[in-house]
Amino acid sequence: MSSSDLQVVVQDIPADPVKPAAAAKTGKLAGAAAASKQLLSTPKGKALAGLGLLCVLLPAIVVPAAVASQKNKQGRTQLANSNSRGINSQTGSDVDPNSFVGADGQLTTSNTTLKVPTRTLNKTKDAVAKKTFESETWTPYVKIANGQFDENCRPFYPTGFNAFELTTMAATGRKSDVDAVFKNAASMGMTSARTWAHSISEQFPFQTAPGKYDEQGLQALDYVIDSASRHGIRLILSFIDNWKYYNGVDQYVDWCGPGRTMARFEEKNGGDTDTTVRSVAQNEYETLRHALFFKEEACKALYKDHVDAITGRKNSINGLLYKNDPTILAWNLINEPRCETWMPANSWCPGAMSSWFKEMGDYVRSKDPNHLVSSGSEGFFGQGDANQGKNPQPWAAQTGQNFVDDNRHMDFAVAHAWPDNWEIPNEQQGGFLREWLASHLEAAESIGMPLLFEEFGKKLDSPDDTAAIRQLRDPVFGATYDAVQKAVEENKPLLGSLYWKWAVPGLPKGPYGVDLDDSTMGVIKTHANVMHRLVNAIPPRPGCVLPASPDKKLGAWFASAAPNAAKRGCVNAPEVSLAYYNLYGPDGTPTATAEELELSEVSMAYAKALYSGKVQVYPTRLDCCRAGGLGAYPQGCNV
């Protein structure tokens, strides 16, 4: 059967979108929800109170029955565009032409539970005319458009995890475990991960001396990037670490700064810098020395050399230069920088750090114009900032960071949340997370920046205690994800979230690690599924899909049959994109008629169904035919 043989019979849908109905709490996730509600109800613990049901309760999207037949249009109708295709198969499958083929190809009659992101719409019917859209050139890279991540000419909401040990796993011959991490993440609907483009171990250093690189470590990174690509996971990569010595800020300063006058204090097992075990004199010396990284020209030059080496590296597996690899979502300039001002001699730090971010951001873009650039900071507010009081503790304003100034010259802003490390009591963590996220959203909006919640987690003293996982960690994850979903649904500049951290097999789980069999993974999977559906509720922009032609990379692909039909296929209906953006795009007019817009009733009906959360749309046939619940059919396409 050729897709050109497919035709459409679709009934009218009300002009006003159907509002989601509350879902019942069922199954194992009900326990997480109850714990979340308890967290939200305590004083100073009202994390994200009033933001609706926890995302962990949202089930799969379901589809309401059509309400009225097309007046005087009982015959089959093809899309007006000459290259468009139909949507429902009329070739012997068991599809009811009086219902929509919904999310994952399911035909049901219950109310939808998906709330599609809102837009600024024109409510009047005066002077309605079909909008025109300039042709756009498709790019495989994620960009920023209209204050959002943009992939395939539509919004992209990163959902995923941090896992800094992936390169170590690949370097020690455990490549199959790297593959398993990405495979499992992708199967749950995750789209993104964050890891390092620098080493943290003396065993596998990327640089053994300034400008001298070790192929074993770099080839391990090659494998991590290639594996992520094969499994459809985008990566955020950090160029350098603040905390670990090897190939981190302190080793750079030992290479590029003045000679030491005090021997280096070595942390046990190459761990993070720990000021509590060093003497006062050692702390003062190391703090002054560490700050030189952001000031010394020789250190800046060494950092730029590393940027050159990484962005210009040719992957030994797939042959792509890193700067030309769409797998990379963005670069972090540095992981959680510090230039501490508790010592008066470092009073220059905040200005120097902001200048460093601008200089290095510009430099990275000059070497790699394809990828986005971000700071990698926790997002502390500096001294004198209006939001300084929102910091977790007074010391945060003395780290040299200033969220607003540091992010002015980035492509998007980032924030991290570590309420346990920052000594926020359990009963206050919900309230802290709510205020922390709200203050960063407000600050990001003030400088026109979208925000990614790049790290968050919940510490457990007994990480394998199932009761503690359910009662302490699951509610924090659920509340955080609820805030992310709420912000996305309201079109706020919150791009998505990455939790800390995936507990990779064979390495210590640690107090923050999440195993595959932890109940928290169910909370994560449910959120990833919802975000995946939110992405697929919006078609690519018309300029990327029209006029339909063989050389167009993208389309507006829909299921053409029920999920278990004998013939499961996908069809391209690009005119639906034109209808959708005329109705619900910026300054769209949702009351416009098919006649006013000179579009088919079928395209209008499907645009309205998308906006109501009743159907899903995919940018390519490959995406539509993905199996495992990520495309239109659990088992994928067979025609």
Automatic annotation (TrEMBL):
Composition skew (Polar residues), residue ranges: 72-93
GO cellular component, one term: extracellular region
Predominant location category: secreted
Ranges that cross the membrane: 47-67
Enzyme Commission number, as recorded: 3.2.1.78
Reactions this protein catalyses: Random hydrolysis of (1->4)-beta-D-mannosidic linkages in mannans, galactomannans and glucomannans
Stretches the record annotates as Disordered: 72-107
Entry's localization field: Secreted
GO biological process: polysaccharide catabolic process
Keywords per UniProt: Glycosidase, Hydrolase, Membrane, Secreted, Signal, Transmembrane, Transmembrane helix
GO molecular function terms attached to this record: mannan endo-1,4-beta-mannosidase activity
InterPro entries the record matches: GH, Glyco_hydro_5, Glyco_hydro_5_CS, MAN-like
Glycoside hydrolase family domain residues: 141-503
Family according to the record: Belongs to the glycosyl hydrolase 5 (cellulase A) family.
Protein name, entry field: mannan endo-1,4-beta-mannosidase
Source organism of the structure: Tetradesmus obliquus
Lineage: Eukaryota, Viridiplantae, Chlorophyta, core chlorophytes, Chlorophyceae
